[in-house]
């Protein structure tokens, strides 16, 4: 029986009992890399104007409703302040001026005959319903003294001032746009200097994008910028037109401004958030890996034989999901998906 027992073969060890962690790896291979910068920004109009009243009076209907979001075209009358009393006062001033000219025309004809026809033509051209024409030029110092002594010059410029004030009772749209703020309504009284509304130019939008201070050197003025929607689809192109020269204290970022150039029929709105994709610059002799392959800010694992070893890398820049680096020997087996609770000298097997 003992002899038969010795002839029996020993059972083979079950090697499957020791399951090694599986890791995904890439061989280090450096090359040139264009590293874009993607950041979200907020749309704002490049031209925003506050409408204020330079005269006092009651606001009357113009045809364009004083409502937030109301659109208008360039040249449309936006705000009109009651003006009939100012018109009547202006007519009265012109009438008194005509009366004074009529009294002095005989003296002009006798003393300044060479310029009489010019003054007579000016007198006949004055219309109570229209702007007063340009004042004739005096030809001599004596004529100038005469006009000043009769206060003709002073009355003329008083009328011109009244015409300017009358024109300020109407505010016209300086561009195609819409109301973003309205502080008054039809029938209310506008005070001198009071803010009536805020308007923006709808077709002149900029994307304000906050960029980390350490990445601002990667961006250059006038470079092309892709504008992406929430799904990452290209909807517009733009151009980097300005960079702030200060850091926002709250976000510790620097704002850059992208002027939009339409490439599709999609509507854009002030306050809308979009993603800007900047080209950045081409970096030589680098490699890009997932950010989760790096730990302790600048360490990675490499596989030597079947053992994990820690190595330090030189981080060039960090993107949202990836990281650009160099500092390892080319051909090294870099772990891009480390196992859970990975440690140095851990035995692993490489994913086929």
From TrEMBL:
It comes from the Bacteria. One of its GO terms (cellular component) is efflux pump complex. InterPro entries: RND_pump_MFP. Gene3D superfamilies: 2.40.30.170, 2.40.420.20, 2.40.50.100, Helix hairpin bin. One of its GO terms (molecular function) is efflux transmembrane transporter activity. NCBIfam families: RND_mfp (TIGR01730). Belongs to the membrane fusion protein (MFP) (TC 8.A.1) family. This is RND efflux pump membrane fusion protein barrel-sandwich domain-containing protein. It comes from Labilibaculum filiforme.
